[in-house]
Amino acid sequence: MAENSLFLKIKVIKKVIENNQNKSRRHISKRICELINWRQLNGKLKDAACREVLRRMNEVSIIDLPRLRVKPSQKSRRPKDRWKGVFKEKREVIEESLSNADTHG
């Protein structure tokens, strides 16, 4: 019985990939999670875990994922230089405080 369920899920996965060849792997994994109702205890989709499973299935030729995108379709939400220098300054203060601390209390 569980074997049939596995084959059905693989068929769903292959169909989603086939219908979304121009979409990102993230989009595909979210769609698969929605269809098979793969969720965390908090109700969020397990799309990161799904992407890992898809990647492994792709490696052993069970499925054929679209190629990884070279350039992301959207601008990154994390500005690369936003925190540059902030952590360096804080680290120096922390290191100085630790070197002056009495560790033998």
Report on this model:
This protein is an all-alpha fold. The protein has a domain at 14-59. Helices cover 55% and strands 0% of the residues. It has 4 helices and no strands. The protein has helices at 2-19, 25-36, 47-59, 86-100. The N and C termini lie far apart (64 Å). The model has no long low-confidence stretch (mean pLDDT 81).
Main features:
single chain; 105 residues; mainly alpha; 0% strand
**Oligomeric nature of the chains:** single chain
- Count the DSSP helices: 4
Runs with pLDDT <50, length 5+? none
Global Rg: 22 Å
Shape: elongated
User: How big a fraction of the residues is strand?
Assistant: under 5%
**Portion of residues in helices?**
55-70%
Structural class: mainly alpha
Distance between the termini: 64 Å
Count of extended strands: 0
Mean pLDDT: 81
Instruction: Note the run of SSEs as H and E.
Output: HHHH
Biggest sheet, open or closed, and with what strands and sense?
none
Summarize the structure.
The chain starts with a helix and ends in a 5-residue tail after the last helix. The chain has a domain at 14-59.
Topology overview:
Blueprint: H1 2-19, H2 25-36, H3 47-59, H4 86-100
Helix pairs in contact: 1-2, 2-3
